[in-house]
Amino acid sequence: MSPSVNTLGAVLDVLGSTLNGFFGDLHTNLSYSPFYAGVDLVEIGKPQNISYRMIGMDHPNRSLLVLHETYVPGADTGEEFAHAAHEGGMVIKGSIELTVGGLSKTLKAGDGYYFDSRMPHRFRNDGEEQAEIVSAITPPTY
């Protein structure tokens, strides 16, 4: 389950590889760019007045959904919903009222959250200015 470096080295030796070769492949065989300019973020949002811009849509075998979310004043995801994932994020501008499992709290810039998404949840911009969140969801739901 969690081999030591020596054990990993021995396994790789039997397979005809080395530690340097094993870990070196991570840096030399990129078939995609790991960098994304703001204009390259893909809009995947459907709700009115909410933008979900996805970072890394073209990443192969993506196991994490990273979003830049924007909510105009009064924007609301609607009724509480749930899905099989975990999600976390940080408010970077404005304020967001987050409801998770019946508990609600208004988060302001610099505040964060993390919860099991199987609990019913809802996001609402309860402020008078646009709100922005950077979030991550695993496994990705998109």
Helices, strands, pairings?
Blueprint: H1 5-14, H2 19-28, E1 42-43, E2 50-55, E3 65-71, E4 86-93, E5 95-100, E6 103-108, E7 112-116, E8 121-124, E9 131-138
Antiparallel strand pairs: 1-2, 2-3, 3-9, 4-7, 4-9, 5-6, 5-8
Entry summary:
The chain is mainly beta and 142 residues long.
Key phrases:
Jelly Rolls, 2 domains, 2 helices, mainly beta, three-stranded antiparallel β-sheet, 9 strands, about 140 residues
Care to describe what's here?
The protein has 142 residues and is mainly beta. It folds into 2 domains: 1-30, no CATH class; 33-138, Jelly Rolls, CATH 2.60.120.10. Helix content is 14%, strand content 37%. It is built from 2 helices and 9 strands. The chain has helices at residues 5-14, 19-28, and strands spanning 42-43, 50-55, 65-71, 86-93, 95-100, 103-108, 112-116, 121-124, 131-138. The strands form 2 sheets. It has a 6-stranded antiparallel beta sheet, with no helix packed on it. Strand 5 and strand 6 form a beta hairpin. The chain is globular and about 60 Å long. 14% of the residues are buried. The model has no long low-confidence stretch (mean pLDDT 87).
CATH fold field value of the largest domain? Jelly Rolls
Roughly how many Å is the radius of gyration?
A: 20 Å
Number of domains: 2
Under the CATH scheme, which architecture of the largest domain would be assigned?
Sandwich
Question: If helices are DSSP runs of H or I spanning 4 or more residues, what is the number of helices?
Answer: 2
Fraction of residues in β-strands: 35-45%
The CATH class label of the largest domain is Mainly Beta
Q: What is the typical, i.e. mean, pLDDT?
A: 87
Shape: globular
**Major sheet summary line:** 6 strands, antiparallel
Strand order, biggest sheet? Answer: 1-2-3-9-4-7
Helix fraction bin? 10-25%
Q: What is the number of strand segments?
A: 9
Low-pLDDT runs: none
